[in-house]
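pasting for ref
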Amino acid sequence: MNYFYLGCLSLAVCFMTPIVSAVEAIGDGEHVFIYDDGLFADIAKDVGKELKGNFKKRKIKWTVKSEKSGTFKSILSSFDKDVIKKKPQIVVLSFGLYHMYNPKKKELLRHVLKDIESDIVAVHEKIKAANARLVLITPGLCSEDLSKPQHMRVNALARMIVSYAKSNEVAVVNIHESAEQWLKANPPKKKGRNQLTKDGYKWDKDGKELIRPKFMRALGLSGGNGINRPIKWDERIVIHAPLESWILSFPGGNLMENRLAKDLKAAGPKEAPAGFNRPGVNGPNCVLGAYKEYPEAYAVKSLTDHKPTVAFVYPLFGYGTRKTVTDTSRLDDYVEEMMKAFAQQDFPIYVMTHLWGVEDGEKALSKGTRYERCKHTSELVNKYANKYNVEVIDLFALCEQIHKKNKVTIFGKEFSGESVGNVYPSLAGKQMMFDEIKRVLGLIEESDEK
């Protein structure tokens, strides 16, 4: 089975409002049509450029069209000609901000929202009639000052769009909430200074980097902020995971860190750059930063002591799989503290959610099982990773997609043919983790077949 072709389907779940929901994976040979008001197009074009090779191999057509200052109402009259006639299978729409942020608008908010929702319904009916799928992007920001009345109006529109999407099983990317959470967690050092936008509503580089991976997850695309640079001579990758050897070991005692170190050396520079003189550095390498106890060993110091240039963390293993350590009374606070600390480091950190298995078929997908515990910890990781802008490799969501499509688990004999029980990751599960790490480091192409 080619699980990697499914992509990294990441459901970034928050407890109140999801950042990304109802993942809508792109199939081979499909046409994706992105239509916006001029504020989202650059992000969509960047994704198209990044995945150009992948799209070509999979015969995916990627179209980006803008109607500057457009609204759902303004695109309605010519929607058949501008969009439906192009025969897309997925239509991505990002509109609404220009009707909401204008302080001169005097209409009552509930009337404005009702009118916009009726326009969304009309557009959605056209899309359904064409047998296409809809992805909605909420409006972004109208100001980075979250106390302004205009912000509250845009916030109300974003909540309405998410509510509509949930009620109608439509994929949605709540870029408004993602930006709002980030700004609350990172107040500007100087009042009035913009951090994600050029002028309060047009995304700058940092804003685009925050939003782009959420958009990619909504379409079931791997990627979303890999390191995007060549491997360096002094590269030191740290995999921070439980000490139990079965998590990272492959047949014949071949450990994951050793396999990755070999790939790094093959892809990296063959000799030190001119003038490089640091004892003990003999080219790119990977080490295991193993921990033994829960939860004290998750302290950032146990990671930074290894002096990584990039780190991959597989945390909360005990909370997700061991009934003896499922006291979650402080787990919410602890995960937030962990993500906040990760966000303050000067090297990239990628946090992996749980691989999971089903102990007794469908009966195990219920409250209190290992699945539910893994789901809970993965939701917490996504919630606070979004808040503090920490990258996530959502293995849990990928396992869910595999199970949904094929009714198999990533653990045990049912998936891989190995009789390893239902607690330990199968060889296929470990390979999934390994490939996702390599993808982030640019050592594997998204379209590579396994």
